Amino acid sequence: MHRVTLEDKGALEAIYTRYGSSVYSLAMYMLKQEALAEEATQDIFLNIWLKASSYRTDRGEPRAWIMSVAHHKIVDVIRSRRRTLAATDPDGYETLELLPSAQISTEEEVERKIERERILKAVATLPPPQRQVIMMAYFEGYTQSEMSELLKQPLGTVKTRVRLAMQKLRLVIEGDVHD
């Protein structure tokens, strides 16, 4: 991060290489549209370039700061879209939200939403330590090594939690299918 504050473009490229997929995953999860997620990801890394001097090492790891910048930017995008929608749709019908994505059918979209709800419901049944690593890995884009560092847990413990959580999720989800 220090090199980014010195306007070292190579450092920004290294940060993008390391954290780009996590930032994009968060953007896709929150925005649910590929084009918006790509645009938000670019804006996020521009913000990181411009605000690098505000990063403080005593407040945590660079990843936490980067993901915080990403989260705030994505929330700004969501708010901006709501304001734009309200201004262009004075009757409050939220037309854009009612239209399905052009790339997938309405049936596929409904199936995806149902599947997402089933998965989140299954994740909610996990013990807190297992739920935490699943959320970090699959919804926040952390690697097992990164989770080990952030949680201050041995890598083996993190791997065991992920493995046990996946086994339990498989049983819960398969049980739902057979019911």
Low-confidence stretches: 92-102
- Helix run count: 9
| Total number of beta strands | 0
Order of helices and strands: HHHHHHHHH
Shape call: flat
What is the CATH architecture assignment of the largest domain?
Answer: Orthogonal Bundle
Specify the CATH homologous superfamily of the largest domain: RNA polymerase sigma factor, region 2, helix turn helix motif
Helical coverage, percent range: over 70%
Distance between the termini: 51 Å
Percent strand equals under 5%
How many domains comprise the coordinates?
A: 2
Tell me the Rg in angstroms: 19 Å
CATH topology of the largest domain: Rna Polymerase Sigma Factor, Chain: A
Q: By helix and strand content, what is the structural category? A: mainly alpha
Determine and state the CATH class of the largest domain. Mainly Alpha
Instruction: Tell me the major beta sheet.
Output: none
* Average pLDDT: 79
Outline the secondary-structure elements.
Blueprint lengths: L1 H4 L3 H23 L2 H18 L10 H27 L6 H4 L7 H19 L3 H12 L4 H8 L3 H24 L1
Helix pairs in contact: 2-3, 2-4, 3-4, 6-9, 7-9, 8-9
Structure, explained:
The protein has 179 residues and is mostly helical. The chain has 2 domains: 1-99, Rna Polymerase Sigma Factor, Chain: A, CATH 1.10.1740.10; 101-179, Winged helix-like DNA-binding domain superfamily/Winged helix DNA-binding domain (Arc Repressor Mutant, subunit A, Orthogonal Bundle). It is built from 9 helices and no strands. The protein is flat and about 55 Å long. It starts with a helix and ends with a helix.
